[in-house]
Task: structure prediction
Amino acid sequence: MAELTTITYREAVAEGIAREMRRDPTVVCLGEDIGAAEGVFKTTVGLFHEFGPRRVWDTPISEQAIVGAAMGAAMTGMRPVAEVMFSDFLACCWDYLANEIPKVRYMTGGQVTVPLVVRTANGGGLGFGAQHSQAVENWAFAVPGLKIAAPSTPADVIGLMASAIRSDDPVIVFEHKGLFASRGPTAPPDHVVPLGEAAVRRPGGDITLVALASTVSTALAAADRLAADGIEVEVIDLRCLVPLDIRTVLESVGRTARLAIVEENPYQGGWGGTVASIVADEGFESLDAPIRRIAAACVPLPFADVLEDQVIPSVERVTGVVRALAAY
Amino acid sequence: MNDTAELLDLYRQMAVIRRTEKAAQDLFLAGLVKGTTHLAAGHEAIAVGASAALRPDDYVFATYRGHHHAMARGATPEACLAELMSKATGLCRAKGGSMHLTHAAGNMLGSYAIVGAHLPIAVGAAWSANLRGTDQIAVAFFGDGATNIGAFHEALNLAAVWRLPVVFVCENNLYMEYTPIAAVTAVANPAADRASAYNLPGSVIDGNDVLVVRDAVRRAAERARAGDGPTVIEARTYRHYGHSRTDPAKYRPEEEVAEWLARDPLALARARLAQLGVPDDTVAHADAYAEQVVAEAVDAAKAAPDADLREAFTDVWADGGATWRS
Result:
C-alpha cells in the first residue's frame, strides 16, 4: 500500500485552485501579491508559475476594484477567484458582498448569475491584533444570497474549493489563518466536497458539539479529554454555513439530547445563534438540557497571546461547558 | 443609414424615452408606481447617442437613474413601466423596480443604486472580454456624484493599469441629489479633471447633443477595441425633473433651469433635423409614433397581472431557488 501523502492546509489552497484552473480555462485569480510573490500566506504558491499572468493577476490595494471586477467578470462568462488578504479587509469592499453580488441575480429577476469565489484568511491565534485577526464568517452569514464555506482540513480545502469554483453561485471561502500550517492527508484526484454537507468528525452518544474551521480541532481535543471521563462527544464539522446542513445536527441531537456550539466569531451575532434557534425550534422535543454556545467574547481581538486566549474559545472552556451539560 | 435618417431614428428613440419618463411620473403621481423613481428626462441624448456608437454585444452598466439606458439597449417601454408598476410582466419580474432596470438580453447588465458601485463591475466585464479574447467593450454610465466615491477612483486606476476596454461616461447634471456638485468637488469638471490622475484621456462634451455623444463614445470605443485602454467622457446635461419622486428641485436657480430647458436634447435634435431639411411633419410623425408607443405601453402595463407571489422566493441562487439550509 502506498504511503499516504500529506499536505499542509496552506498548500491545499493552491492545490485546490490549481486543480480547477487545469480543468476550466475560465477560472482566473486576482488579488494583492498573489502572483509572482505567491501570496502573503503562501496560499498561491506555484499558480503564477504554472498559469502565467493571463490567469493570475496582481492587483493594487483596491478591495472594491478586486471584488467588483470579479463580479463583472463572473457576470460575463468567467469564473474568477478573488483573494481578499485578511477577512477583516472584507469591510473595505463590503458593499459588493452585502449589496451587489448577493442581490444582482434576485433583483434582475434571474437575468444574470455570479459564479465567483472570494477567498480570505480569517480568524485569530497568530497575534496579529484587532484589525487582522477577527473571525468574521458571521458577517457573511447575515447576508441572504452568499454561500459560505470554511474548511477545517487540507482535504476539505481542496474538495470545497472545487465545489466553490464550480458553483454557479457566489461563494465566500474562509481559510483559517491558524490552520495554514496544519497538515493532513491530501485529497485524491477529482475530490469534490459538496457545499452544504457537514461531516461527523467523531461519533459519540452523549453530547453533540457543532464546530467550524478552527473550532473543529478545539472540539476534537475537548472530546479526547472528556472520553477519559467517560463522556462520549459527537463532533460535527459544519464545513459550510450556507447551505447549512442542519439535518445532520438535528439527527445527532435526536440521539444525544444535548447540544453545544463552538464558534470563533463573537457570541454577539455569531452563527451559532441561528443553529441554536433552529434546534430550539425544530429539535426541542429531543433536548434534555439547554443549548450552550461557546463563542468568542464580545470584544475586539487583543494583541497579546495571553489576552487572545481569553477571548477565543479554548479546549478548557469547551471541556468545562460539556461536563456541566453532561451532568445537567 | 445616412446621417439624416440616423438622426431621425435617434430622435424617435429619445422621444419614446421622454414620453416614457413622463408616463412614469404620471403613474407615480396617480399612485400606481410605488417606492421611488429617478427620471432621466433631459438625459436622453447620452443613452441614445452612446448606444448608437456601441455594438449589441458590448456591455452597459447604469445607475438608479437608468430607464433611458435600459430602453436604449432594447428594453420596451411596456416592460419598464410594468416593472415600475409591480407587474408580472415587468422587466425584472417586479423584483427590481425603477432603480434596478436590467435588460441582459441587450447586454445592459444592470442599474445599480449604490453610488459608484458599478464602475468596478464594468471594469470586470471589460477584463472578461479581454480574457476571452473578444473585442467587446464595457461602458459605465454614472452621475457626477459618483466621482467623489472611492470605487470610482479604484475603478479608473485598475482599468488604466490593466489597459482595459472600458469607457467611463459621467452624466454630469450639475447636482449630486440636491447639492451642486461644484460645492463639494475640488475640481471644476468632476470626472474629466480626474482622468489625468490615472493617465487617461478625459473630455467634457455637450451631453444634450446626441451626435456629439455618439461621436465621442465612438472614438472612445475605437480606442478601447484597439487595445489602447479606457477613456473618461464627461457629458454635461440637466435633469428635467427633480432628483427623485416629487422633488420639486427648488434648489436650482430659475435662470439656470430656463437656460438648460432651452437646450433640451430633443429640441436640439429637432433644430438640427430642420437644418438638414427634414420637413416638420416628418418630425411630428416621430413624435406621434412615440406618443402612440407609450400610450399603448401604459395601457398594456396597467392591464398586466400583478407579480406572482411565488416570485418572492425565486432567483436567489442559480438553480432558481432560495434554499439556504437542509
About this structure: Chain B touches chain A through 55 residues (CB under 8 Å). Strands of chain B lie at 59-63, 108-112, 138-143, 166-172, 175-176, 179-180, 202-206, 231-236. The two ends of chain B are 58 Å apart (CA to CA). Chain B has a mean pLDDT of 97.
